[in-house]
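Methods — Computational structure assignment.
A single polypeptide chain was analysed. Its primary sequence is given first, followed by the predicted tertiary structure written as structure tokens.
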Amino acid sequence: MARTADKLISDIRKEVSSGILKPGDQLEVNALAERFGVSRTPIREAIRTLVESGVLETRPRKGSFVRVLSAKQLLDLFQVAAELEGMACRLAALSLTKENVEAIERGLAKCTKAAEVQNNAEYAMANLDFHTAIHNASGNDWLIEQLRQLQINLNSYSSLYCIVDLVSHPIYCNKR
């Protein structure tokens, strides 16, 4: 069974990726312990790990926060992600299985549904599922892990600024 801290790490990463926790949000140890129904020790352990992996940052005498990236850091991440996404697509295209296609189509359907109801938070999670399905279809474990790490930071910003406009949205346009 996974350690409590490992589950917390996963849960907090999901909250950052989905935009529940936004860049700059402070993480209060006591509030998190109460919310997750655990002691402060595994919360501190999870925070320490997430700081080491770059998801969170600490500020002297202020505590832990969801990491805020500079415009340069974001641009750098988007450039790297774009290249790795292209690589994942190329590899996926070479070895697509029926299961891969179904997973990608499910992700696309979730994106379309979220766009139709203009639910930005749902769209951010659906977009993550869609891209993850493509990454998994690549079959390259190293690439999948690198893209997962990038998505944690990128998706938190995408969910901040994603305003789904149904008429001009690429998914909607592609379905028409």
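Note: The radius of gyration is 17 Å.
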